[in-house]
UniProtKB/TrEMBL annotation:
This is Transcriptional regulator. Belongs to the LysR transcriptional regulatory family. Residues 7-64 form the HTH lysR-type domain. The lineage of its organism: Bacteria, Pseudomonadati, Pseudomonadota, Alphaproteobacteria, Rhodospirillales. Keywords: DNA-binding, Transcription, Transcription regulation. InterPro entries: LTTR, LysR_HTH_N, LysR_subst-bd, WH-like_DNA-bd_sf, WH_DNA-bd_sf. It comes from Azospirillum baldaniorum. PANTHER family: HTH-TYPE TRANSCRIPTIONAL REGULATOR LRHA-RELATED, TRANSCRIPTIONAL REGULATOR. Coiled coil: none annotated. GO terms for molecular function: DNA binding; DNA-binding transcription factor activity. Pfam families: HTH_1, LysR_substrate. The keyword Cytoplasm does not apply.
Length: 306
């Protein structure tokens, strides 16, 4: 009986890192190896699966259909490997971690991340809060939260000292699919209630471009805002992060101004020094990086900063 082939975890990790960070050279830098060593690993992987995984794309390489399929499994296998090691090595880890998230991450991304963390560290008590950027940053600064993922300021404003910018995301116009605005009438806006950085920024850009507008819907919650936009009540201003599949992004043109970018930052309280906080901080950074890199590989409007 032929024995099954066991995929090499180191090789799978190299594949994941190469695809998430822009190629074999970047993977070699992160893994402390030569580019030729990474290339040999990828050749070994192709021999193991019996399929070509890469194709030429200009001066770089891209994944074949088989490569795309394997990459999805590789991410899951590497994540499961790391979760297993964390669970065994950190079984005695306990304590409390207080962490904050923007609404954009709460529905799709947050459950998977917290579930993974809880399985690895079941004795750690997690207190999660969902809120707006300024509120979350203030709570970290005052010691009410240990960690927070929060949007920084839109544009070229310097980041807050001590914050790590994990990504720069485009700020975009979001509309229901098939939206056709009339340039001769005021633009209907569905917005979060004030104070909201995205709301203020969008209105200022419209005013600066001389485009008339009117507010047709406001809500304190992002889920309510998405529902209103899907129902056709108006367009809104946000990042593509957590954007429902039922909505679309409007490209800037002569009628809609460009909106720039906004950093997504990780804030950590100076007093938050514990193995539990360290571990959750690492999981948040790794998981967010994988999610954004996956979106980038699908040519979505996300820009990851390594």
């Amino acid at each position: 009986m032929m024995l099954p082939t066991n995929l090499d975890m180191d090789v799978l990790r190299a594949l994941v890192i190469a695809m998430e960070h822009g190629g074999f050279a970047r993977a070699a830098e992160r893994l402390g190896r030569t580019q030729s060593a990474i290339s040999l690993q990828m050749k070994k992987l192709e021999e193991q699966v019996g399929q070509p995984l890469f194709r030429k794309a200009g001066r770089t390489v891209a994944l074949t259909d088989a490569g795309d399929l394997l990459l999805g499994y590789a991410r899951r296998l590497v994540a499961l490997n790391d979760e297993a090691l964390s669970a065994v090595r950190g079984r005695a880890m306990d304590g409390t971690v207080r962490v904050g998230f923007p609404q954009d991450l709460a529905e799709r991304w947050l459950p998977a991340v917290l579930g993974s963390f809880h399985r690895a560290h079941p004795r750690i008590h997690v207190e999660a809060q969902v809120g707006r950027g300024r509120e979350l940053r203030e709570r970290v600064a005052h010691g009410a939260l240990d960690l927070a993922l929060a949007f920084g300021e839109i544009g070229d404003t310097p980041g807050i000292p001590g914050a790590a910018a994990l990504a720069h995301l485009p700020v975009v116009w979001v509309a229901p699919k098939g939206f056709r605005g009339d340039p001769e009438t005021s633009l209907p806006l569905a917005l979060l209630d004030a104070p909201c950085m995205f709301r203020q920024h969008g209105i200022e850009r419209l005013d600066g471009g001389g485009r008339p507008w009117r507010i047709t819907f406001t809500s304190p919650s992002l889920s309510g805002l998405w529902a209103a936009v899907e129902a056709g009540l108006g367009v809104t201003v946000r990042t593509p992060l957590g954007l429902p599949d039922t909505l679309s992004i409007l490209e800037p043109d002569g009628r809609l101004p460009a909106l720039g970018t906004v950093p997504l930052e990780l804030h950590r309280a100076p007093s938050a020094a514990s193995p539990a906080v360290d571990r959750l901080c690492g999981i948040l950074t790794e998981s967010l990086g994988a999610m954004l890199a996956g979106a980038r590989s699908k040519k979505q409007h996300l820009i990851f900063v390594a």
